[in-house]
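Need tokens for this chain, all 188 residues.
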Amino acid sequence: MTTKILIVTGDAAESLEVLYPYQRLREEGYEVHIAAPARKQLRFVVHDFEPGFDTYTEKPGYTWPADLAFSEVDPGAYAAVVVPGGRAPEYLRNDPELRKILKSFFDTDKPVAQICHGPLLTAAVDGLTGRRVTAYPALELDMQAAGAVFQDTEAVVDGTLVSSRAWPDHPAWMRAFLEVLRTKAPVT
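Here are the structure tokens for all 188 residues:
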């Protein structure tokens, strides 16, 4: 049986932060499933940086089907979870089914990869207390409020938790996550 990885996301997730790990993990031989609040066609967004703007801009991105609803996920069937960013984490952190899923990964010390605004979800399950993390730099105070030590760098590994700032850091993020996966959840 192939080792399975779960990606948890929803509408308004950053396109690259869902699809890059989805494709990269499949390339490594993992079976990857995308879970969302409901089985549906998800609408992702593209965040980009433009001269003259004080923050990133948002444009419509790719669409992609969710394989599972959060209520259908058996966390025990998955070796690791990926938590993309974008705007999706702002509302997904209120989903009790998703909080149960994420909590189970932390409770069993399974690998967790989070990027950009994704740590808003892991903070909602008290998964960051005492941990070293990075996130989108504007979340530094949120990470500190969640009990984490914030580091503004491409990727931070704290045990089985691997975090990154945003899609420009994908290579460092996935290299670090794959190193953890090869130890804790190798492809079978």
